[in-house]
């Protein structure tokens, strides 16, 4: 009996040691920021969470992000994106405003992805499946995260005929991050940043103190409204915080009876009362001005905004159907903040460009001097306008429609499905449709439906 007891204890001790050893090997727990060590690495490699920027407030640009999640469809492009990004709205340097698109596989028109990439838009990974079970995303292993996110990056490279290394960022479906498992995958697979992480403490009615992008070399100061969040160190991995908005559901927050509710995605914001474009516009201006100009705090004191990079994160479905007033109010807002005479320091750019600015911050005087020269300015567009450099390559050759007979029981997909892909690969050799039974989906062999090279970054 004593021998059996000793054996059990020994097994438990060995198991505990093995688990502890695995954790030690798996990740190094992040420590409090060491500003001296971080500064020594340079701003392109390390930025402590909670720090702003070395540029004086008056000389900072206000970076604004427009992002769209899920499939890039012909319907969304025809009805909405085309008039948003046709050159009507421009930044102070004369460049067209540009967006970031977090893509999923089903229903994406990859020929349009190629076209908008050539217009300077950023393409990023939002998963292959976008499964509806939040616990699925919460509990994924690093390998499963890789299957979803790297798999989507490979599809974009293959079917949209662009360099897969152009896909630098990701967003988790439903903003349900996977904590250390997710960030380990990002670090191990050449991603630059994540933009899945909302902040209420540095957003909402406190957005005057907006949280700037930071790297995960050290402990984060960011709150964790959607668990799990990472505990370990991932040197050089950027987080672009999602500064929460305040909607128009006044009185819905018992902790602030005069406030609206909190919303991380624009299409999650509730607009009570008059459903008009003017109401959408006023809600957006209220939130933008908190970060850009400032607002009164809970003590009635005015606090200037710190100009943290601020975004409108949404799904294009918010514009569809009988909700044209959403779209019209959105355009009213863009029309206002792209009035360069009134807002000479507001730049609407992809997330990757905002992070490039964080790596090499300069005052507005320098940005103005650089103009549209993208060999100097992260907000430039000369090579995009001239279609030179990387934009001279990766031609799609037009789209071709591919038909599939699909059986994916785990995702409830059965029967006929179509996808539109580029006629040419990124190396400019001809690309045919995958076999009808090889619908691109999960699994290393399935990512590109058998098409080659199915390269990753």
Give keywords.
disordered N terminus, five-stranded parallel beta sheet, four-stranded mixed beta sheet, 457 residues, 12 helices, alpha/beta
If you had to describe this structure to a student in words, what would you say it looks like?
It is a single chain. The chain is globular, with a radius of gyration of 23 Å. It is α/β, with parallel strands linked by helices. It has helices spanning 2-26, 35-41, 74-84, 110-118, 134-138, 142-159, 179-188, 277-292, 324-337, 351-359, 364-370, 382-386; strands at 62-69, 100-103, 122-125, 169-170, 193-194, 198-199, 214-216, 234-239, 242-243, 245-246, 262-263, 294-296, 302-304, 310-315, 346-348, 399-408, 413-422. Helix 6 crosses helix 7 (179-188).
Instruction: Kindly provide the radius of gyration, computed on alpha-carbon positions and rounded to a whole number of angstroms.
Output: 23 Å
Tell me about the largest β-sheet.
5 strands, parallel
Could you list the spans in which at least 5 consecutive residues all have pLDDT below 50? 1-25
Order of helices and strands: HHEHEHEHHEHEEEEEEEHEEEHEHHHEE
Number of strands: 17
Secondary structure: helix percent = 25-40%
Helices, by number, come to 12
As a percent range, the share of strand residues is: 15-25%
- Which overall shape is indicated by the principal axes computed on the Cα atoms? globular
Tell me, rounded to a whole number, the average pLDDT.
Answer: 93
End-to-end span in angstroms?
58 Å
From the helix content, strand content and strand pairing, which structural class follows?
A: alpha/beta
């Amino acid at each position: 009996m004593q021998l059996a007891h000793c054996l059990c204890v020994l097994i438990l001790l060995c198991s505990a040691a093995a688990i502890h050893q695995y954790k030690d090997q798996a990740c190094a727990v992040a420590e409090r920021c060491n500003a001296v060590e971080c500064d020594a690495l340079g701003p392109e490699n390390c930025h402590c969470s909670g720090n702003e920027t070395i540029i004086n407030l008056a000389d900072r640009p206000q970076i604004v992000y427009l992002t769209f999640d899920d499939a890039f469809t012909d319907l969304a492009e025809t009805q909405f994106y085309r008039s948003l990004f046709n050159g009507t709205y421009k930044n102070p340097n004369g460049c067209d405003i540009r967006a970031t698109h977090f893509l999923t596989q089903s229903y994406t028109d990859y020929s349009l992805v190629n076209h908008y990439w050539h217009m300077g838009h950023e393409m990023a990974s939002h998963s292959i499946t976008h499964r509806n079970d939040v616990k699925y995303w919460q509990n994924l292993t690093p390998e499963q995260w890789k299957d979803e996110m790297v798999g989507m990056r490979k599809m974009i490279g293959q079917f949209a005929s662009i360099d897969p290394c152009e896909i630098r960022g990701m967003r988790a479906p439903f903003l349900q991050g996977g904590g250390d498992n997710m960030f380990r995958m990002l670090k191990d697979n050449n991603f630059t940043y994540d933009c899945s992480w909302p902040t209420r403490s540095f957003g909402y009615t406190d957005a005057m103190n907006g949280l700037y992008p930071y790297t995960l070399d050290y402990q984060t100061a960011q709150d964790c409204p959607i668990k799990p969040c990472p505990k370990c160190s991932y040197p050089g991995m950027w987080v672009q915080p999602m500064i929460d908005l305040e909607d128009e559901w006044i009185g819905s927050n018992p902790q602030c009876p005069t406030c609206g509710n909190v919303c991380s995605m624009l299409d999650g914001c509730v607009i009570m009362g008059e459903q008009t474009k003017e109401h959408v516009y006023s809600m957006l201006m209220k939130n933008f001005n908190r970060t850009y100009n400032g607002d009164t705090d809970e003590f009635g004191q005015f606090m200037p905004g710190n100009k943290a990079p601020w975004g409108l994160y949404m799904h294009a479905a918010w514009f569809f159907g009988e909700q044209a007033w959403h779209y019209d109010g959105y355009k009213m807002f863009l029309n206002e903040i792209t009035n360069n005479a009134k807002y000479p320091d507001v730049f609407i750019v992809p997330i990757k460009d905002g992070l490039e600015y964080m790596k090499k911050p300069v005052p507005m005087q320098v940005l103005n001097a650089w103009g549209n020269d993208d060999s100097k300015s992260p907000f430039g567009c000369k090579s995009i306008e001239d279609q030179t450099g990387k934009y001279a390559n990766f031609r799609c050759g037009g789209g071709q429609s591919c038909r599939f007979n699909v059986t994916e029981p785990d995702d409830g997909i059965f029967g006929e499905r179509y996808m539109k892909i580029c006629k040419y690969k990124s190396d400019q050799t001809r690309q045919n449709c995958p076999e009808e039974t090889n619908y691109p989906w999960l699994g290393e062999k399935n990512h590109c439906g058998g098409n080659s090279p199915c390269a990753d970054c």
